[in-house]
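FAQ
Q: What does a multi-component entry look like?
A: The components come first, one per line:
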Amino acid sequence: MEKGGGGGLETELRLGLPGGEVEKNEKKRVFEEFDGCEDRAAVHKNQVVGWPPVAVFRRKNSFNEGKLYVKVSMDGAPFLRKVDLTMHKGYTELVRALEDLFGCFGIGEALKGDEENYEFVPIYEDKDGDWMLLGDVPWEMFAESCKRLRVMKRVEENGVGLHAKDLLKGLSKED
Amino acid sequence: MCLFQSVMNYLPKEVLEHVFDFLTSHHDRNAVSLVCESWYGVERFSREKVFIGNCYAVNPERLIDRFPRLRSLTLKGKPHFADFNLVPDGWGGHVYPWIEAMAKSGINLEELRLKRMVVSDESLELLAKSFPNFKSLVLVSCEGFTTDGLAAIASNCRLLRELDLQENEVDDRKGQWLSCFPESCTSLVSLNFACLKGEVNVAALERLVARCPNLRSLRLNHTVPVEVLQKILVRAPQLSDLGTGTFTHDPDSETYVKLKNAMKNCRSIRSLSGFLDVNGRCLPAIYPICTSLTSLNLSYAPGIFSNELIKLICHCKKIERLWILDTIGDKGLGVVANTCKELQELRVFPSDLYGVGNTAVTEEGLVAISAGCPKLNSILYFCQQMTNAALITVAKNCPNFIRFRLCTLNPIVPDAATNQPLDEGFGAIVQSCKRLTRLSVSGLLTDQLFLYIGMYAEQLEMLSIAFAGDSDKGMLYVLNGCKKLKKLEIRDSPFGNMALLSDMGKYETMRSLWMSSCEVTLGACKTLAEKMPRLNVEIINENEAGEDKASCDDRHRVEKMYLYRTLAGPRTDAPDFVWTL
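Then the predicted structure of the entire assembly, as tokens:
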């Protein structure tokens, strides 16, 4: 968890003086899961309960934790919706939530590869203002940089489906 | 017997009562009541304000019996570590029995202040209907009620002066609670609904503010827009304490100009908070009031960049209390040190709880503050790292600390420069600060620190320990040394039965002891409970609810233990997972 927590100290956290005998059994139980893991989600999950000692009310109401609502638009839908990204642990869950919101199915198909048989392309606008295809980066990275979501609908042209990249190209031209 | 004593014995009760009127602190009143029976009697019939630090230490009936003229009651419920999710839901701390008992006995209750208690809508309704002179309700970190309960208070408390809701979990029914204040309500002095999530009727709010000329303190929630804030300020330029709602608007707009002018007219504002959603570029609107501010709370204000904070701070020369996020950075704290010479209390909260190397304050900021702010006496500081050298310097610069709470984001991080434990640094703090009453420690700490605490922290009343110490000796040093200790809370530390049982009588001199994820066993807790009938020894056992308690092995470690002195015996409202031994 802590990288370089002080001049080369190993990140194996334990009670007692550094270099001393490690106490057996569970004293380091809470920290065993921390092993220099970079993934914030893992840190999240293995979070020591109640540390740092910030009151629950403050945690829920500070901007860094609690909810992260972003707008979602669906091509052809008369109004936008909002989703809370903190309510989902990954892309599959998010896609399912979107499908529930808009009452449709198959939003996630485009993420599965270069298949022809999909109707929707889910994309998001990131912090730099670029429109990106959902699913390329780790979930946490996405959640941090996502400003809004859009579910594009494939437009039939002579019965030939468009690939995602063509849709995205079209979008940047609009900008 | 000397002449003075004989004279005192013959003073009529009315004179004694009049003398006792001058004693406002409950410490003094408690002391006076112990002098002799006659003083006890006079004191109890004249006491109007009572403070009960643990609602399970005494029964409501006993309270009412002793203090029939009670007008103001302060109650605290759950243990402090409940703030950090260490106490499961449903543990207890219900206020209803207190309100019910006072209502039945005809107590003329005027003020109720609660902290970490469970407050139901039923209790609020009963409160509102039972006490015609009720004036002041202050709820801090409570839960269990909805805006319907607030509506009952607003509708029925004709003389209400204060409704102060701080950091409560309120179920917002999106009703019209604010509209329930009748037109005849003109007595409000303080209204704080910052913690509510739902919208309020802003027209009703504006009318309420307009008809309450004594309104001094108003804290809005995040749903109240800037346009409404501006109108309110125009109607209530006499405010001395303001909590804004959102503070986002276009700095080029007319609203912004109006707001700035309204602010300029509020010459009495000394305390400012809120900014629950803020655009940093709008902060210049408050510069005019910054010069006279004594209290500023920006700890819930997201996303203000360090340089904007710094510019703001430069205007705040009279600040005595500052609550801020660590986005201010060490550099910003340096500016605070140079500017805020009246600073007494500083709290620096983490903006990034998982602190993966991003936290902006280190020991440098703390040292700068200690050097620049001679009146500093209370600090809460979340930081990435700390060093003994820094703490030793802080101790030298600030011998006047009353409260010192330091929290490293990694709970067992050693001295960032030397890799040693932080024993010497905290040791210097307790040695230098002779008036220290509250201490929270963190970082890599051994028994040595607790030796220092036991030796030097003579005034210490509350101590919080986490992931610290090596052996029972650590806890023993504290129990033996700190004569004034009232509250001790320990988590994830290797203290066990020997320490727990060495001086059982000590716990009757304290309010409470919390130990979780330590080394104490069930058997030791049972022994303690058996030998000390005036303690409630509670075991919180979430995993084994329903399991046959008789089959629990005495050698098992206890996950969570909370013990407290009490005159009320084991409590009758304990849930399944709480086992009073």
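Q: Is there any commentary attached?
A: Sometimes. For this entry: Chain B touches chain A through 52 residues (CB under 8 Å).
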